[in-house]
Amino acid sequence: MAKKFAELEARMSPEAREQTQALYHQHLQEMPLHELRKAQALSQETLAKALNINQAAVSKMERRTDMYISTLRNYIQAMGGELEIIATFPDGQVKIENFAHK
Amino acid sequence: MAKKFAELEARMSPEAREQTQALYHQHLQEMPLHELRKAQALSQETLAKALNINQAAVSKMERRTDMYISTLRNYIQAMGGELEIIATFPDGQVKIENFAHK
Three-class SS of residue B84? Predict the structure, then answer.
């Protein structure tokens, strides 16, 4: 796996490599769920309707620090997004596909 | 959010943009958990010891299609990786930070 990433990066110019890293990191701004919902201009009520639960349940979900992957996926999908589970290692990143086809 | 990504991409040359996307997508190869473990040259037994569970429990975990985020994080960390939860929208990606500090 390490070899693959290394080869890929070796084919890029230093400038392209730098830009890639900058873009990559900027793409991944961190946000808690409730802020992400607000960024999508959605209320807890709207999301609750889409998930077929009540507003209090959405509020509770947004305060959780752990939940089932399927629960999180439903929440993200109700906002129009897709959940991706990534494992980051010193030599690269891999998308975990066990949970991809629920 | 859409504006931010658009601005960022607008500052890049078409070549850099193309390379970025190619690298980004190639970085994210998909893999199920058991293949990821093998790619790290780890056996179920080794991982079981690191997680303080038995080998059968690791085997069972690798066959699950849903689990708690904390369970998955422990598994990834035992392999020397870090779990990242990403929400992908048509206009960009956001890292979900609710689960980041367990």
Answer: strand
**Shortest Cα–Cα distance, B47 to chain A (Å):** 16
pLDDT the model gives residue B86:
93
Nearest CA to CA, how far is B41 from chain A (Å)?
A: 11
In sequence order, the β-bridge partners of residue A29 are B94
Strand ordering across the sheet containing B29-31: A29-31, B92-96, B82-89, A82-89, A92-96, B29-31
Cβ pair A59, B57 in contact under 8 A: no
- On average, the pLDDT of chain B sits at 83
Position B99 scores a pLDDT of 84
Select the residue of B1, B36, B99 nearest A65 (Cβ to Cβ). Answer: B99
Residue B1 has pLDDT above 50, yes or no: no
Residue B90 backbone phi and psi in degrees, to 5 = -55, -30
Residue B96 burial (10 A CB sphere; 0-12, 13-18, 19+): buried
| pLDDT in the model for residue B77 | 96
What domains sit in chain A, N to C, each tagged with a CATH number?
A: 1-8+32-102 (1.10.260.40)
